[in-house]
Amino acid sequence: MDKEVLIALLSLLGTFIGAGGGVLVSNKLINFRLDQIEKKLDKNTDVQDEIKERLVKVEESSKSAHHRIDDIVDQLKIHERRK
Which of 33, 56, 67, 83 is 20 to 30 A from residue 73's alpha carbon, by CA? Predict the structure, then answer.
């Protein structure tokens, strides 16, 4: 085999190895970043679920407070009519 052909083949092999290695490293980095994003999304989902639960409790408490206020207003109206 000629020296030039051997050098060309070795250069081609080096190019393939370098390109393949770059793709693998890039793929690992992308997978790592995706895992980090998924963890953040899971954490945010947990926080959102907690906020939803708290909001439901606040809404229930608010409804109860409105009912009590309405009852007090009705009682005051009855007392005012009696006077």
Answer: 56
3-state secondary structure of 14: helix
Q: Is the pLDDT of residue 82 over 70?
A: no
Tell me the two tokens of residue 81. Answer: 């009519």
For the chain, give the number of residues.
Answer: 83
Q: Where are the alpha helices (DSSP H) in 1-83?
A: 3-82
Looking up tokens 């009590």, which residue turns up?
68
Task: Supply 67's token pair.
Answer: 């009912």
CA dihedral (40, 42, 47, 48) in degrees, to 10, reads: 110
What single letter denotes the amino acid at residue 31? N
